[in-house]
Predict the structure.
Amino acid sequence: MALIAQEHLPKGAQKRVAVRAMFDRIAPRYDALNRLFTGGLDQHWRRLTLDLVGVGAEDRVLDLACGTGDLLEMAGRRGASAIGVDLAMGMLRAGRSRLPRHAFVQGDAAALPLRDGSFSVVACGFAFRNFVSVPGVLAEFARVLAPAGRLAVIDVDRPGNGVVRAAHSAYFDRLVPWMGGLLSDRDAYRYLPSSTEYLPDAAVLHGWFEAAGFEAVARRSRLLGTAQIWTAVRS
Ligand SMILES: C[S@@+](CC[C@H](N)C(=O)[O-])C[C@H]1O[C@@H](n2cnc3c(N)ncnc32)[C@H](O)[C@@H]1O
């Protein structure tokens, strides 16, 4: 199954509509397929993401683009007060039925329905590729974080080493879309690997964090370059 060519990936307002509809469709099986495709590593990476910014009981955490609330649940287990915001009602519904005591709010990362400086941590899991404008979303993160608030972002990545990159591509670009098509939604699981095209080089992304008002920007690569975790502090 071929990837979607870069020029055919949705952009602007069309991307927002397509992304929202896609996550509404795949919500019922989203968690199960994540665990299946990563062998449970996705949860390990989410825990690590919260560890890296030291999420604890004193924190007020925003899980942005929360999906069904995995990061929200983990932050809550640490005693933090946390809310999740997501664009797709299907994902929010799945999250609310799984975690009825947690707060899920519908909203767009580009214009959050939240007050300035109201969080000590913003965590964002596997969603960067889906935003229409990452610089615009980073500015919203900075706005809702209190001064010295911490930001933690995890997303997929492409390995730099040629051999590893080829092996990863066989799995991520071929097997995952095929299995996703059998078990859930063919177009969505074709979009998933194709959407890595939206992510700029690390140096560009680093500049976007700083331009949005973050300092101590750091990037960590996981599992041979298949995932990346960014942390930063609001200046
Ligand atoms: C791959 S899922 C990740 C969900 C969850 N964070 C996780 O770790 O599993 C991407 C999520 O981003 C959400 N999303 C995409 N664009 C968004 C936007 N502009 N504002 C808020 N959420 C958005 C989607 O609805 C979807 O739930």
